[in-house]
Specification:
- The longest helix is centred in the last third of the chain and has 21 residues.
- By secondary structure, the chain is of the alpha+beta class.
- It is globular and about 55 Å long.
- It has 2 domains: about 110 residues, no CATH class; about 180 residues, Rossmann fold.
- It has a 6-stranded mixed sheet with strand order 1-2-3-6-5-4. The protein has a 5-stranded mixed barrel with strand order 7-8-12-11-10, surrounded by 4 helices.
- It is about 30% helix and about 30% strand.
């Protein structure tokens, strides 16, 4: 893909969050690479929110926001994420000051950190980021959730038949009207930090209706999917998976702000637990776990609603 100086890109998660990404010439190549990873389309008009990137010296923001080169307007809010400084206006537009000193690993970390204001906006509108793989079946999304080492990537690569792998590590769940949710795949950022081998990225604008969540457990004996009938258990498991993603941002927040966002996340997953069925999925090394998934996802909506009311 050939990039040209001055391109702008559209980052869109349905109608819930639409951002225009732009950059000054010194970091245009960096934002072009970011757009390529997220497969963002070029845009020519303007939307409500702008995320603009500029080049900055390291001293501009590491522990010294008072050295911010142009000063910050009184109505704006500065946040330092160590290698990136965010200046958010009262209207919600964000100017991101970037520094990576030519280090490609830091350049990739900065791309991940650039999503912080976007994720925060999604959380405030009822959605959450999720540490999970995304599987699609018959036009619906199912999350394969779990901590590192539980087999998300392996299960994602083993999906068979009409099951499609849409991503294998991180997703963004967007809340829509009438308590409906859509899932957007996000890049596997770690795949870009290991010498660039096996890079994994997908079209983040692809939103698929969320129909269920499977929490993975390794098994030596058999594959099995068991419904989580208690909403509290469902919400607790969701909350843990969300915080596995959110902690890489919240570690930079002040304690009051961190508490506020954690409360919002908990409220969001409790609401999701009332509307999205969840299951424990035991997975063996060579079994056909997707068959067990089909057994429970093939149940009628009436049956699933009865379970959620228990």
């Amino acid at each position: 893909m050939e990039f040209h100086k001055g391109r702008k890109y559209r980052l869109s998660f349905g109608t819930s969050a639409v951002w225009d990404l732009s950059a000054e010439s010194q970091v245009q190549g960096w934002i072009d690479h970011f757009a390529e990873i997220l497969t963002l389309p070029e845009c020519y008009d303007e939307q409500d929110l702008l995320l603009h990137c500029r080049r900055a010296r390291r001293l501009d923001f590491i522990g010294h926001p008072e050295l911010f080169e142009s000063g910050a307007p009184a109505e704006s809010h500065l946040e330092s994420l160590q290698t990136i400084l965010l200046n958010t206006s009262s209207g919600g537009d964000v100017t991101a000051y970037i520094d990576h000193g030519g280090d490609m690993s830091i350049a990739m970390i900065n791309m991940c950190r650039l999503l912080y204001p976007v994720y925060r906006s999604i959380i405030k509108s009822g959605g959450v980021p999720f540490h999970a793989a995304m599987a699609e079946h018959e036009g619906k999304a199912y999350l394969l959730a779990g901590g590192s080492g539980t087999g998300k990537s392996t299960c994602s690569s083993r999906l068979h038949g009409e099951w499609l792998s849409r991503c294998d590590d991180e997703v963004l769940v967007v809340c829509e009207p009438h308590n409906r949710y859509r899932v957007h795949p996000m890049p596997t950022w770690s795949s870009f930090l290991n010498g660039g081998m096996g890079k994994k990225f997908w079209d983040v604008s692809l939103g698929v209706p969320l129909a269920g969540i499977f929490f993975l457990e390794r098994s030596k004996d058999r594959d099995a999917a068991v419904p989580l009938l208690k909403k509290a258990e469902n919400a607790a498991a969701m909350n843990a998976s969300v915080l596995q993603i959110w902690q890489k941002y919240s570690n930079f927040s002040e304690s009051d702000q961190r508490k506020e966002m954690h409360c919002l996340i908990f409220e969001n997953v409790c609401r999701m637990a009332h509307h999205i069925p969840a299951y424990r999925l035991s997975v063996t090394l060579d079994g056909m776990f997707w068959v067990e998934m089909e057994k429970v996802t093939g149940r009628s909506e009436v049956e699933n609603k009865k379970d959620l009311q228990v």
